[in-house]
Each structure stands twice: as C-alpha cells, then as structure tokens.
Amino acid sequence: MHAKFLQTAILSALVVTCAGHWAPRPTPAPSHPSSDFINYTTVTGFFLQDESSTDPGTFDYTATNFGLINRTYPTDNECDKSFTQWQKFEHYVDTLNQRSGRNVDYKVLFMGRHGEGYHNVAETYYGTPAWNCYWSLLDGNGTIVWADAHLTPNGIAQAQIAAAFWASRITLQKIPLPQSYYTSPLSRCLATANITFSTLPLPRSQPFIPTVKELFREGISGHTCDRRSNKTYIHNSFPSYKIEPGFSEQDLLWRAGVGEVNTDEDIRSKTVLDEVFGSDDNTWISVTSHSGEIASILRVLGHQAFGLNTGAVIPVLVKAVTIAGTPVATATLPWTTISTCSTVPPLPTVT
Ligand SMILES: *[C@@H]1O[C@H](CO)[C@@H](O)[C@H](O)[C@H]1NC(C)=O
Ligand SMILES: *[C@@H]1O[C@H](CO)[C@@H](O)[C@H](O)[C@H]1NC(C)=O
Ligand SMILES: *[C@@H]1O[C@H](CO)[C@@H](O)[C@H](O)[C@H]1NC(C)=O
Ligand SMILES: *[C@@H]1O[C@H](CO)[C@@H](O)[C@H](O)[C@H]1NC(C)=O
Ligand SMILES: *[C@@H]1O[C@H](CO)[C@@H](O)[C@H](O)[C@H]1NC(C)=O
Q1: Per-residue pLDDT at 204 exceeds 80
Q2: Where are the alpha helices (DSSP H) in the chain?
Q3: Which one of 178, 184, 251, 307 has the fewest beta carbons within 10 angstroms of its own beta carbon?
Q4: Are 230 and 84 within one domain?
Q5: Please, how many CA atoms are within 13 Å of residue 1, restricted to the half-sphere of its CB?
Q6: Which residues partner with 313 through β-bridges?
Q7: Shared-domain flag, residues 104 and 17
C-alpha cells in the first residue's frame, strides 16, 4: 500500500497549496502483503454486466458502450457539458480515489477474454466428454496443435473486433485508456492483447507494454492447452512485453493428470489481484485472460457470475479496502484427478 500512500501524500501536498493547512506526513505503512488484507468488492450500478437482469449469453459489449450505463454521477456538475458518458465516469472514479482514505483504492479493470483458440475448436469438434477424457490430454491430433493453443483465424478476427471497438471508443467517447496492461502467459492471450492494443493511437505516456503475469493464466486443468510455453519462447515471440520478476523458465504449475479446483484458483486469483493492487498506482487497468480465470476473479471481486464469449471484454469498478492484520487464510484443497478414457472415444454422432 506504499503506492497508495504516495498518491495520498501528493494529493495532500496539493491540498496544502490550496487550503493552506498542513498535516504532518505520516510514516509510510510497511508494504508487507502478509500484514495487510485487501478486501475487494464490485461497486455495482455502473455497468450492465453487474445487473442480474442482463443475460451474459446474448450480451454484446460492442453494442452497449462496454456496458457503461447511461446515468448521472454526483460529480457531473464539475464536468464540461461536452463530456461523454465515459469522460463523466472517469471524472467520477478519479474523484472517488481523491476523496477516499489511503486504505481505500478504486480501480476499473477491463478484463478481456482471448479470441477463439484451436483448443476451443477441438473441444467443439470432439464434444466436451471426449475432449476432457482423451483429446485434451494430447498436444494435438496430427492436423492441429492445441498445446498452449494459438488463435484461430476466427480468434484473430475477434481480437480485431476488440481493437476496432477500442478505437471507436477513443474517437467517440474519449474513453479512459488503460494505464497498465497485464496478460496471462498463455499464447492465446499474448496474441489477443497484441492485436487488441498494439495498433491503437495511444498517448506516449501510456504505451502498450503489458506485463506477463503467471497467475493470470487459465485454470490449470491438466489439459495441454493450459500448459504454458517457456519464458524464452514468450520473450522471443513478444519481445516488447515485460515479464514479471521471478517468472520461471519452465511451467512449474501445470501437472499432467490433475486439475486445479475452484478454491485453489480463487486463492491464486486473490494473490495476483493483491500483487496488482499492492504495486500499481494506476486506476485504469487492462487484464487479458481466460473464461475460467476471469470467472474466478469475478468471484474474488464479489461480482455476479458473468460468462464471456471468446474475445469479449468486461469492465468492473473495484473497491479495494486494505485492512491491517493477517487475514484468516483459506485452506487449499487437493487437485482433482482427471478421469481418462481407455479407448479413443468416437466422434459425436450428427443428429
Ligand atoms: C469485506 O467487505 C464486505 C463489504 O463491505 C464485508 O461484508 C465483509 O465483511 C468484508 N470482509 C472482511 C474480511 O473484512
Ligand atoms: C446510451 O445512450 C446512447 C445515446 O442515447 C445510446 O446510443 C446507447 O445505446 C445507450 N447505452 C446504453 C448502455 O443504454
Ligand atoms: C483434428 O481436429 C480438427 C478440429 O479441431 C479437425 O478439423 C481435424 O479433422 C482433426 N484431424 C484429424 C486427423 O482427425
Ligand atoms: C501484433 O499485432 C499486430 C497487428 O495485428 C501485428 O502486425 C504484429 O505482427 C503482432 N506482433 C506480434 C509479435 O505478433
Ligand atoms: C523453449 O521452447 C522452445 C519452443 O518450444 C524450444 O524450442 C526451446 O528448446 C525451449 N527452451 C528451453 C530452455 O526450454
């Protein structure tokens, strides 16, 4: 929370020049994550995806301004008449941060699911039962490879739709652009983030340099599509990306034959959110990840379940309150054993 302190200190310094009173600088809190507990909540009422009446199955983020609800905010009277909905929302969120205590932090996470990968196509082709018990455990079928699956042409097109939609929001809405970018280390996300953001007219102060973070990866299912490539390969494929410190050369988390359970995935989702919130001063954050992992993050944020189609994006206004003291740790559970098929399952019959 050191970062938040600095922000508050700068703001109090600004207050001094305006209001003419000076509070002594408090000593920064030691930034030992283990001595702080961050409690996350989703602030609802701002996005359609927060409303129980919205159907995730038919929801189209590109038809709804990313889901931003047309409404007023208490800070609208400080905004120019020409402000768009996104500009008014930006001012509101920035004001929330300025007026909140130093233990309270608001961020808007734009979480994007990767475009369609070869594993998605194969699961549809073979059917989920045969995929789970047999095909998902192989690297591919001789025609296509789905180990650390790449994007299909359709998946590339979905990421291009996201890119075009961001471009339209910049022009029409002057949307607040991400100030930081994070991505899962799996190839389909590395490529989706690149296609979505690399061609946008970004301000020089906010370049697209994503940080690859191990724990934004998909649920570690034991399927080869969820086993990542090595660090050298990631670096060589996307040389402009930053790879977080401590990222291992080989994938040390994936294990054949067993799958991470939701409880454990939620523990690591909380860990990766704590890393981001504990070290990143920025408010507007892009995360490129996966359906299962975004579902887990939404659980940690107390957001309603909201399934994303391949290539879709969900924004969430997050309130993070740092509470001193060690939290009660959630116990991890053993991973589940994958049940395998002893013979090659037949293709699904056409009905
Ligand atoms: C986190 O915040 C929510 C909402 O304010 C509250 O209900 C919950 O008790 C808090 N959890 C902890 C561990 O403080
Ligand atoms: C908000 O209003 C605009 C203009 O009236 C409209 O085009 C848009 O669809 C509305 N968005 C939502 C999410 O209702
Ligand atoms: C491999 O899977 C793809 C679909 O994922 C399918 O189109 C192709 O025919 C399969 N190849 C073989 C050899 O079965
Ligand atoms: C990133 O995306 C752009 C635009 O689609 C493309 O031209 C470029 O080759 C991609 N870079 C990598 C490293 O894949
Ligand atoms: C990394 O992965 C690439 C591509 O699969 C492979 O050619 C290379 O030998 C690997 N390097 C290491 C150090 O594992």
Answers
A1: yes
A2: 2-19, 85-99, 118-126, 128-133, 153-173, 187-197, 231-237, 262-279, 291-300
A3: 307
A4: yes
A5: 25
A6: 112
A7: no
Give, for ligand 2, the residue of 70, 89, 168 to mutate: max count of ligand atoms closer than 8 Å to Cβ.
70
Residue 209 structural domain = 33-337
Q: Which of 90, 116, 123, 218 is catalytic?
A: 218
- Ligand 1 pocket test, pick from 41, 42, 100 with the greatest ligand atom count within 8 Å of Cβ, gives 41
Q: Is the same domain home to 99 and 200? A: yes
- Supply the pTM of this predicted model: 0.90
Atom of ligand 1 nearest to the CA of 39: 1
* Confidence band for 342, pLDDT divided at 50, 70 and 90: confident
27 and 165 both lie in a single domain:
no
- Residue 67: both structure tokens together: 């889901």
Paired tokens of 135: 């095909």
Q: Indicate whether 347 belongs to any domain.
A: no
Q: Which residues pair with 117 in a beta bridge?
A: 151
CA distances from 335 to 119, 216, 253, 257, 267 (A): 22, 18, 12, 10, 13
| Residue 10 shares a structural domain with residue 117 | no
The protein residue whose alpha carbon is closest to atom 11 in ligand 1 is: 39
- 237 Cα–ligand 5 center, Å: 12
Catalytic (active site) residue 114: yes
Q: Check if 84 has its Cβ closer than 6 Å to any atom of ligand 2.
A: no
For the chain, what is the mean pLDDT? 90
**293 and 319 belong to one structural domain:** yes
| 72/192 same-domain check | yes
Residue 38 half-sphere exposure toward CB, CA atoms < 13 A: 29
- Answer whether residue 328 is part of any domain: yes
